[in-house]
Structures are given as structure tokens and as C-alpha cells.
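Your task
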Amino acid sequence: MFALDLIIKKRNGQKLTKGEIEYFVNGYTKGEIPDYQASAFLMAVYFNGMDTDETLWLTEAMLNSGDRVDLSAIPGVKVDKHSTGGVGDKTTLVVAPIVASYGVPVAKMSGRGLGHTGGTVDKLESIPGFRTNLSREEFIRNVREIGIAVAGQTENLVPADKKLYALRDVTGTVENISLIAASIMSKKLALGSDAIVLDVKTGSGAFMKTVAEAERLARLMVDIGNGAGRRTVALITDMDRPLGNNIGNALEVKEAVETLNGKGPEDLKEVCIELAANMLFVAGKGEIELCRNLAAEAIEKRTALNKLIEMVIRQGGDPKVIEDTSKLPRAEFRAEWKAEKSGFVEKMNAERLGIASVLLGAGRKTKEEAIDPAAGIELVKKTRDKVEKGETIAFLYASDENRIHEALQVLKSSIVIGPEPVPEKPMILGRIQ
């Protein structure tokens, strides 16, 4: 078998066998297939796609390329949650403590942000002292003893995905549904949870720009999860606007804490309640409506906030910043953008807003780039809000004043003010079980 044969076969739109896909994944992971041939193969897949069988075989081959996390020492139904990436998406910081407060173990490994999307690990590391580089033993012990841990991914967890994703990122082959599904689900299956809830974003700030694309991806991932014996549910959620009002690491931690205190923005609260309810549902805590009530109750009674504080202490973070978020890192410079005319916020381009936050220092353009935990954007107005001329639309925060001007220009181009309020759009656009 030769890599060239597989490239030509997929280039011609033919279906690959399980053995051929395993050969490609193993060969590239071990360095036996060079980047230039792997790039050609990925481009052939990008244009001609893979069917459900091929996608499942690709997922399995990637899953088998490295270590798996054994959670069998933790009693109960372990539940994982994954978001396909968005702007202002701090849901893990809210949802995981809600679910864990009901005795459902949440063992979550998360990534860092890249490009316009933020990463949970970066957000948590804006809490002074918080460690995400937990050993496997420490990770499992924390989940077993307090029901929750959020850590960075280990080096040998699905190494095939690490190599393939890095190549896709520089060859224009990221936005392919089969490649996205295999990437996400190989990591979720390797983490060893019994049930998975997927948050598939759609809109300007997401990889899936349309609801139809998001539904296709969600159905494929749910099929893979259920086919692997994991109870899997997917929600389709809106990412045409940032989630919540804050974009940036410490700013998002602050907003997550406010939400757990019952004071967060309604759009963030709605998505978090629905995600938490579905996680409790797949863990067997009752029908979905009952689980929604349980999720809301965990916020109302502050049990979820207490669980977050418990996790922060266990992972070396300073709990005082959760009790008083003014102690979180704060930027030296602040600028505000005021409306140049009256009207209504008609449109927000979430991707452009994410790029503006990166320019302020809240994100990174390469994996090696350092981030400023205090940088970011606070939106005072969002879609459908009425705006008067001279009224503040957003605040920009940075530790380097020179970053503000360029970010402000991008911010201005990402928000449109029109004469009339636009129709209301729901945050939850679908559910696939």
C-alpha cells in the first residue's frame, strides 16, 4: 500500500477502506508519510468528502494513535462537554460546576484558544495560581474526590489529531465536516467519559456558518458517539453574536462568576442552563425539563458557585478572586467606543469581534504566542439594543496602549447600527439526540 494510491483514490471520489485509512493515519503519525503527501490527501478529502463509514474509521484510527484516559476508578456516570468554538464562550466555567454540584463527575480536558476563538485553559489560567497542567493521577483523584477537574490535554492523547490539525490549519482544510467530526470525537472518546454533550456553534463566529452545516456536523458526531457506546446529545447554538457581554480571559471569568451568582447576561445563562440540563439528562438525573429546573436551582442556591471555588482551590488557584472578581487581572488601559448615530444594533460579526480581542492581546495568532489575561472587550450594547448618539457601545481593555487603535477599527467594522430593531433570534437552534 502506498500513500499516493490513497491520494488518487480519494481525489477520484472513491470510498476508502478501513485498512487504507488506518495506514494513512498511522503512517503520518509515525512520520513515514511526509507533509506534502498528507496535505494532498487532506485536500482530496476536503473537496470530495467522506461518508459516515469513512469518518467513523478515521475517528477510530486517530483514537488508537495514542493514550486513553481510564476513568473507571471514578464511580458514577462521567459526563463530558465540548464546544466547537466561539467568541465569549465561557460556558464550561458555569456548566461544569452546575453538573458536578449534583454528584455527576465532570472530567474535562480543554484546549487553548487559537485565532478568533477563546480557550477554556487560557480563561482558567487568568485566575492567579490556577494550574491546568495536572498529572493523570491528580486529574482522576480530583474528579473522584470533588467531582470536577478541568485540565489541559496531555501530549500523547490522540497524537494523530495534533499532527493532522496543525497541517489542516496551514493548508486551508479545517472546514470539512468529516475532518472536524473525527478530530473532536477522537479526543472525546479518548477521555473516557460515559456520556457526551456537544455544543455545535453556528453563525459568523463559528466554523459552521449555517444551521444546515451545523446540523450535519452534529448528527455525524452524535452517530459516532452513540456508535462507540457513549450516550451523546448535541445542541445547535447561535454564534452570530458573542456569547455574553465579555470577550477576553479574566473578563470572561468575571462574567462566569456573575452568572453563577445569578446576575449574568440572559443569553449566557440560557445556553448554560440548557447545556447543564442535557448533561444531567445523559447522566440519568431525570427528564430534560426536570434537569433544567435542577440546573437553575444550582445557580439560585449557590451550590454551583461553591463547586467552582472548590475546584479553584484544588487546582492551586486563589479563591479570593472568585469571591471578589475585582481582584482578577486588570488592564492598565481602557478605551470606549461611543455611537456616532442613534438607532438599534442591527448586526454583530462575532468573528470580527474575536479578532479585535486578539489584537488587544486576549488571544494568539500562533500557539506559541503569549496572551494578556486582562485584555479584551466589554460589550455594553448587543443585537436589538437601542442606542443613542454618544452612548457607549463597548469598552476595550489592553495592557499595551498601542494595541487599542487597530482593535478599535476592527470593532467598529463588526457592529452595524440600523434604524429598526431586528427580529429576535433564539440562542438554542436545535437539539439532536
